[in-house]
Amino acid sequence: MEELKPDILHEVIQKRFAQANKTSFGNALLIGGSLQYAGAILMAASAAVSSGIGRLTVATQRENLTALRVRNPEAMGLDWSHHGPVLDQVRKCNVVLIGPGMGESDEAAELVRATMRAMRPGQNLVIDASALNLIADHHIMVPTDVFTIATPHQGEWAKLSSVMIPYQGSMELNDLQRQNLNLDVLVLKQHHTVVLSDNRQVQLQIGGPYQATGGMGDTLAGMIAGFIGQFAEPRRATEAAVYAHSAIAEELAAHNWVVQPSLIADYLPNYMARINTNL
Ligand SMILES: NC(=O)C1=CN([C@@H]2O[C@H](COP(=O)(O)OP(=O)(O)OC[C@H]3O[C@@H](n4cnc5c(N)ncnc54)[C@H](OP(=O)(O)O)[C@@H]3O)[C@@H](O)[C@H]2O)[C@@H](O)CC1
Ligand SMILES: Nc1ncnc2c1ncn2[C@@H]1O[C@H](COP(=O)(O)OP(=O)(O)O)[C@@H](O)[C@H]1O
Ligand SMILES: [Mg+2]
């Protein structure tokens, strides 16, 4: 399979134009974070903010909103139990990330279903973690007219696609199920993650076991949403985020036994400036 190369970063990460304002860099909505898994959506939010998204709203369980405001005052917050305002925001933004730390309650399933129904052509949807399991368990249809990116780990992909882990080495099988599930891009996370889309299959050749820690995927999901929100062409933006996430981890691993996912978000603005400076 073709290697995902660093060229993707130069292609995707574009210098900001002088007259730009926050509306020039996307409007993202992140949905997730039950009481038990609040950290997942907070890590995703930090990653999206650090990536440079123009505007960010997080819909989460009410009790998590104070932590969100303390950790990322840049983000706006919504109580996810009020579907009306959440769905209004779904319609306004150009990218939605749903799933990190969402949990698998019936209420969470209802919100996944309602979000999918509210989305319109031209919008982008990143589906991660609990949302993938909810889609599988509740037979929720992924919309065909929205650009969708799924980011499962191998356990989540086995459940969603019925391609069991020993068979996931077959890109033919994975890609067939990607298409059957109406997914435009499949980011199948593992050591050397693969990214599958129409007529293109690439594999990451960087990164390592210093990334094997909870929250690493939540951080990647926030980066993908942040990159898609502000850079043209969602497939390339996804690939760039996948590359940058592991490249930063690899840099940090030179001096750190384990790479804390939050540290990746902290280093992201510096890493991006080294790819393409705004000066
Ligand atoms: N701080 C927070 O708030 C955090 C919150 N988080 C959030 O919590 C939610 C639940 O996440 P989770 O980690 O409890 O279980 P989850 O990923 O659903 O796995 C379930 C089972 O699948 C398997 N499995 C797992 N990985 C696999 C792999 N790579 N390859 C193959 N199989 C794999 C494994 O089953 P086993 O193989 O052990 O039978 C595992 O027990 C989710 O929304 C997430 O975003 C986390 O991000 C952590 C930090
Ligand atoms: N041994 C490894 N080598 C390279 N990358 C890894 C390794 N282990 C985990 N990762 C990366 O860490 C992330 C884990 O994602 P995920 O399982 O969704 O974590 P979480 O849900 O806890 O945030 C993925 O991007 C995966 O590729
Ligand atoms: Mg995950």
UniProtKB/TrEMBL annotation:
Q: Where does AMP bind?
A: 189-193, 217
Q: Name one GO biological process term.
A: nicotinamide nucleotide metabolic process
Quote the catalytic activity from the record. Answer: (6S)-NADPHX + ADP = AMP + phosphate + NADPH + H(+); (6S)-NADHX + ADP = AMP + phosphate + NADH + H(+)
Q: Which PROSITE patterns match?
A: YJEF_C_2, YJEF_C_3
Say if the entry is tagged with keyword DNA damage: no
Q: What InterPro entries does the record tag this protein with?
A: Carbohydrate_kinase_pred_CS, CARKD, Ribokinase-like
Provide the gene name from the record.
nnrD
Q: How does it assemble?
A: Homotetramer.
Q: Which Pfam families match?
A: Carb_kinase (PF01256)
What CDD domains would the database entry show? YXKO-related (cd01171)
UniProt organism field: Weissella kandleri
Q: Where does (6S)-NADPHX bind?
A: 40, 101, 153, 218
Name the family.
Answer: Belongs to the NnrD/CARKD family.
Task: Please indicate which superkingdom the organism of origin belongs to.
Answer: Bacteria
Query: Which SUPFAM superfamilies does the entry mention?
Result: Ribokinase-like
GO terms assigned for molecular function: ADP-dependent NAD(P)H-hydrate dehydratase activity; ATP binding; NAD(P)HX epimerase activity
- HAMAP family xrefs: NADHX_dehydratase (MF_01965)
Q: What UniProt keywords are attached to this protein's entry?
A: ATP-binding, Lyase, NAD, NADP, Nucleotide-binding
The protein in question is named ADP-dependent (S)-NAD(P)H-hydrate dehydratase
